[in-house]
């Protein structure tokens, strides 16, 4: 029997901001432990710099011109075959926990089960992105004002993702199965708004942070 597979995805997490990647300041002990016992994708490239098309590409292994998910207003809808569909067809249990940013759970996205999924709002996503020439870009000043310590709905959601993941692993992962399972766990953070629980924010005094280089 083959090995079970746990895939963890974080949103907008720079690949070098990890202790296991040699970052001089970042404290990521749990991720470092997982990296030490698993596989870290260090030479992976996205087929799109935009969230929704990139997620469609990750789910299918195809380029954007093949999935036709061109923008954040054109989410994946399960009609293009994914590796999840192939796993299910082969009898594997393929479960997702957390953010997907597809069209809807009513579509067959390739999962045996979607736990607390987060999909594009209204199944459409950011429709303003379809305009070639926008009168104005989205105002991001509110995000800048929110930078600092504090609680946020995104953080609450990620805590639930962790809780649901641990519950699934405790109850389902050890149950007898004919074939190995695959669990896809996807977090919202560190995607903006850039608030951070105080206990973690205090780990990084400003005088210890390295200068930003572009």
Write out key terms for the chains shown.
two-stranded parallel sheet, four-stranded parallel beta sheet, 7 helices
Portion of residues in beta strands equals 5-15%
State the distance separating the first and last CA atoms: 47 Å
- Strand runs, count: 6
> Which of globular, elongated, flat, extended, rod-shaped describes the shape?
globular
Order of helices and strands, N to C? EHHHHEEHEHEEH
Tally of individual helices: 7
Architecture overview:
The strands form 2 sheets. This protein has a 4-stranded parallel beta sheet, sandwiched between helices. The chain is 27% helix and 12% strand. It is built from 7 helices and 6 strands. The model has no long low-confidence stretch (mean pLDDT 89). By secondary structure, it is an alpha/beta fold.
Task: Write a brief structural summary.
With 214 residues, this protein is α/β, with parallel strands linked by helices.
How would the blueprint of this fold be written?
Layout: E1 5-9, H1 29-37, H2 51-60, H3 64-67, H4 83-89, E2 94-99, E3 113-118, H5 141-145, E4 148-149, H6 153-171, E5 182-186, E6 195-196, H7 198-201
Parallel strand pairs: 1-5, 2-3, 2-5, 4-6
């Amino acid at each position: 029997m083959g090995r079970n597979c746990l895939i963890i995805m974080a949103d907008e997490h720079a690949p070098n901001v990890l202790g296991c990647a040699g970052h001089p300041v970042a404290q990521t002990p749990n991720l470092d432990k997982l990296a030490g016992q698993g596989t870290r994708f260090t030479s992976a490239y996205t087929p799109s710099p935009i969230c929704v098309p990139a997620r469609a590409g990750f789910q299918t292994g195809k380029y954007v011109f093949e999935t036709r998910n061109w923008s954040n207003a054109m989410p994946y809808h399960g009609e293009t075959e994914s590796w999840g569909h192939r796993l299910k067809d082969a009898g594997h249990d393929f479960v997702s926990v957390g953010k997907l940013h597809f069209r809807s759970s009513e579509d067959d996205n390739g999962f045996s089960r979607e736990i607390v999924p987060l999909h594009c709002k209204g199944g459409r996503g950011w429709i303003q992105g379809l305009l070639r020439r926008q009168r104005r870009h989205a105002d991001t000043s509110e995000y800048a004002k929110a930078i600092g310590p504090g609680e946020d709905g995104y953080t609450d959601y990620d805590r639930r993702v962790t809780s649901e993941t641990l519950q699934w692993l405790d109850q389902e992962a050890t149950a007898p199965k004919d074939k190995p399972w695959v669990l896809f766990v996807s977090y919202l953070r560190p995607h903006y708004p850039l608030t951070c629980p105080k206990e973690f924010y205090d780990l990084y005094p400003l005088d210890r942070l390295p200068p930003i280089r572009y």
